[in-house]
Amino acid sequence: MNDIRHVFELDAEVTCRQMENTSTPVKQLAQISCYHCGERCEEEILHHEGKDFCCAGCKTVYDVLSENDLCDYYDLSDAPGSNRRKENTRTNRFDYLDDTDVRDKLVDYQDGKQVHVTFFVPLIHCASCIWLLENLNRLHEGVVDSRVNFIEKKVQIRFFKEEISLKELVALMAGIGYEPRINLSDMVPQTTRPADRKLIYQLAVAGFCFGNMMFFSLPEYFSEAELLGQGFRELFRYLNVVLALPVFFYSASDYYRNAWYSLKNRSISMEVPIVLGIVTLFTYSLYEIFLIDQEGYLDTLGGLLFFLLLGKLYQQKTFDTLSFDRDYTSYFPIGVSKLTQNTEQVIPLTKVQVGDRIRVRNEELVPADSVLLDEEATIDYSFVTGEEVPVLVKKGALVYAGGRQKGAAIQLLVQKSPSQGYLTDLWNNEAFSKNEQEDSLASLATRISGKFTFTVLLIAFGALSYWSFYDFSMGIRAFTAVLIITCPCALAMSTPFTLGNVMRIFGKRGFYLKNTQVIEKLAGLDTLVFDKTGTLTAPSKARVHYQGESLSEETRGVVKALVNHSIHPLSNRINRWLGSVPAVKLEQVEEIPGKGLRAVYKSQSLVLGSASFAGMKSSPQARSAGNEVHLVIEGVHLGTFYIESGIRQGMEEMIPALASNYSLHLLSGDQDHEKTELEKKLGTALRMHFQQSPKDKLNQIQQLREGGHRVLMVGDGLNDAGALKAGHVGIAVTENISHFSPASDAILDGEKLRHLPAYLDFAKLGRKIIKSSFGLSFTYNTLGIYFAVQGLVSPVFCAILMPASSISVVLFTTLATNYFARRKGMNEKTELRWK
């Protein structure tokens, strides 16, 4: 039969009959879950030992555990394993771990017998994972022991180097579904922050001295000092002086330094009134102890520094394990497949040289600027440019580092070393570095403390002036009492305790902030800017519906061949929908940009494209949401593909909710082919800008800022790094929170993006709680000033009022944030209440 259309129709009838005959088993198949990973068995089902598995990979892992008597793994959680359907079966992909330089940089410790190594394993998620990874010694006798850090998703392993190599250990973990993530950045030693250790030392000194000073001061508080005798009273006071010296000179040293820098820059920071209170408290205590034989306020000084440093430590310890400014090496793997004659060798990326021939497989990242040696390749540059449509590259063309190969393995000739490629140049661009000082927002407490300090000083000097006419010693007492009682320790602690608690609550909901200042910035925003690809839309969620005559394998091969010749987004989605169908060989393929494709197959004309291009009217069955792509053979319409945009879940509700309070913008590197569909789904309040390069995005954000707007940029990938830096706040959306996020202020789990209105509302609520705590603190200070200016304040009253005010503010902020978090659903595994 010469007419290809009749062949298609005949195949279509056979296909339809086959589908009818297998409809019941398919329905049953979709209801069966894999015993190992818990996913539905949608493609195949394997029965083994009375259990069902979705693929051979999951079955193999079960067999390994069963042979080693480790099936208790399944008793701890239901279907705890990861899906092994896409398991990489290459036997040489861990060969780079045999390299001495790589091994020495990855291991923590090694001697003649043992090796200690720490791996990051992102798939750790439940008790079963911990149990299995801590029983690796039962899978291989060369493993001594292993310990899991669940919070950081890390595994520390000790093994005998003579019995199992590092390569074999990684292969063992990969075989049971827990392959470690090893990137080029792991070869660089991680630097520690000595400031954190110094803060702990300062806190320890303050706590030790404060506790002992309180012990020596107890008789004074209970008016039992007379029972001790004059000698013991003086001894205890002098011991308090000795204990106060390290507190005054060491524990408070950072406050002195920051206050000096603040005054040097002609500004009043929170540290200035704190230092003023510390110095006054210390000097007046020495005056009382040595000159007028009184007990002083040194125990209060110790308590003040202890609680201040405790709040500071609480703030710094939050989310220390997250990395917000990792470099390009965090994306690159350590190993690269190098081709030498007819052999393939996996070598470390650091040893790749110009002129090497390398092989890059499907979904692997191109590690260096290289020339394509194969006839053609499909490269996805979405990480660099934001454009989700893969680019068709021909033989001899330059493939840039950072591109991801789509399809069969390709061969490349390295032109530049990985450290000199396009991706590195883009990464090192000045615009892609976050300048915290330029974009920092002065904390709310610091701004208030300036006015607070001047007010306190005015009252203190006023009291001194008044009492000087009657009793100068009383004037000194009133002056120092005002400064001591109104020292804004509660004001200083309310901010870090409140924001630290809000940051902790955000973290439980998949929203990780770089520091507490980000919360204040979030509360003051008025403009939100979104990237499209990977942020509002998810290409993997794009849906393709076909309506018409059923497509046989040959017909699918023809369509596959057509879309392979196009980089249009609609062709790309049809290509993905077809899967791994083998493409046929076409003749006279021609693409008319923006319209469609023409070709010849077996002397028959083929057309795939828009309705007008295919000579058709828009289908009356057309769906309101989606683009139409028509398939016509020899002038006969065979069917229509309806393609719906892959909007991330919850965006249709999120955008209108934000539009009532914020100005919304969309910046995308894509063409504007989806503008109409996006407006239908997201509304017209979102101002859309397409064909935006990384520099264009940066300029757009800068223009908004110059117009007086406070801008939040939400994006992903290196192409958004400049815009993330330029915004007052930059949020990097990622499917894995441990992935690198360029110059971002926050990391947001992609599945949690729909809760952005709730996060912004809670940030504003946190600011209100801080203001309320300030009101509580001012109430205490007003009460203290009332007594202080009259000279009625005793040491006991000072010692009680100051800690009481601090403790009450801390309790208020903590209880208030937790209360409203429960009301908003922040502490629960339920949908956040922001509507």
Q: What is the element layout, followed by pairings?
A:
Elements: H1 4-21, H2 23-30, E1 46-48, E2 51-53, H3 56-67, H4 73-76, H5 100-106, E3 107-110, E4 114-120, H6 127-133, E5 143-149, E6 154-160, H7 166-175, H8 194-221, H9 230-251, H10 253-264, H11 271-290, H12 298-316, E7 335-340, E8 343-348, E9 357-360, E10 370-372, E11 376-380, H13 382-385, E12 391-394, E13 398-399, E14 404-406, E15 410-414, H14 422-427, H15 436-439, H16 444-468, H17 472-485, H18 489-508, E16 511-513, H19 517-523, E17 527-531, E18 543-548, H20 553-564, H21 569-578, E19 587-592, E20 596-601, E21 604-609, E22 627-633, E23 636-644, H22 651-659, E24 663-667, H23 675-682, E25 686-689, H24 694-706, E26 711-715, H25 721-726, E27 729-734, E28 746-749, H26 756-788, H27 795-824
Parallel strand pairs: 17-24, 17-26, 24-25, 26-27, 27-28
Antiparallel strand pairs: 1-2, 3-4, 4-6, 5-6, 7-8, 7-9, 9-15, 10-13, 10-15, 11-12, 11-14, 16-28, 18-23, 19-20, 20-21, 21-22, 22-23
Question: What would you note in describing this structure?
Answer:
Its main location: membrane. With 835 residues, this protein is an alpha+beta fold. The protein folds into seven domains: 4-76, no CATH class; 95-182, Alpha-Beta Plaits (2-Layer Sandwich), CATH 3.30.70; 191-318; 333-424, Distorted Sandwich (Calcium-transporting ATPase, cytoplasmic transduction domain A); 444-516 and 762-835, no CATH class; 517-539 and 648-761, Rossmann fold, CATH 3.40.50.1000; 543-644, Calcium-transporting ATPase, cytoplasmic domain N (3-Layer(aba) Sandwich). A hairpin with a 2-residue loop joins strand 20 and strand 21. The chain is elongated and about 115 Å long.
